[in-house]
């Protein structure tokens, strides 16, 4: 949540007003749109449809979606394009990339385009929890779009087979272990045929870990993104619990649990409980051939999950007409009606309370109550880990987590090493 780039912002503010008549007079403005694909399901088809629908309603603007890979790949491509002088006009990137994008002078504040009472009402309408990773230094740098929390999914049939109430998930760390022990199955040779639980440790291990640290009672970074607390005692306790699921309790696969294959393992009944993003909700609903439950994550000292997912950003190097066109598209796609539809079609949390008042959303939640779980968990949510040089800092933590989960290092040593590296990276920003 950092600053810099006022000069570019002021220039865009001064010239954005010039672009409005161009749009009004029918000049066709093209905007390139980088979009990452991070979950299963036909997301790209949905984005193509939204872009086409926007163009029907806004004939002077052409939106060109470009599917740029994972979040990590997309930020690299976006920054590379920025440095070469031809960045996408708008991108959906992790909300936690905000500091990096500001430090690289790659984005312009959204506030520059907020001019009317309607604009201000729109910008103030997002869930406050999502704005923690969208604002800093008194400015708004990103607009929440595909946002999430981590939730627990469980197979009700397997609960029933294990003698557990299929309607009641574990609510504490201890219960989670006890349930997972009952849900883990072994053959006559002692080989596991069904795991009790999987908490993925590839892709976004820091994010899953942050759920555990939140529940243990520690926040991993300060709001300014200049300090971390990776080796706090509560963080060590959280990592020890995660490691123990495999090494002590033997209810989770050993080593690295893959992010991408965890939903498939759930569909194939290889695992009874999984932690993953609510952004996989529609994927699970479509592909799970058994009754499943969705619940808030189990608590320890407290309940909680980090928020997650992507924000819209506008390039600082786009011309004023393109910036204004991107703003129009972002406003259009995040209206309550479309935020509700996007949530229904993907499983991501609708980013505004108003979206949940839409009749289509009220009908959906009444027919499919799991759709409200992630929204309700926002009450206990914290900002996702975000710092300056976020990719490097989270890599230090991810490396430490994976070292502990593979048995290369003890949890305390792994987190001490991660903290030392984060200190080295962040010291110049203090």
UniProtKB/TrEMBL annotation:
Superkingdom of source: Bacteria
Coiled coil: none
InterPro entries: Bact_solute-bd_prot1 (IPR050490), SBP (IPR006059)
Compartment(s) where it occurs, according to its Swiss-Prot or TrEMBL record: Periplasm
CDD domains: PBP2_UgpB (cd14748)
Annotated keywords: Periplasm, Signal
Signal peptide: 1-24
Keyword Transcription part of the UniProt annotation: no
One Pfam assignment: SBP_bac_8
Gene3D superfamilies linked to this entry: Periplasmic binding protein-like II
Stated family: Belongs to the bacterial solute-binding protein 1 family.
Name under which the protein is recorded: ABC transporter substrate-binding protein
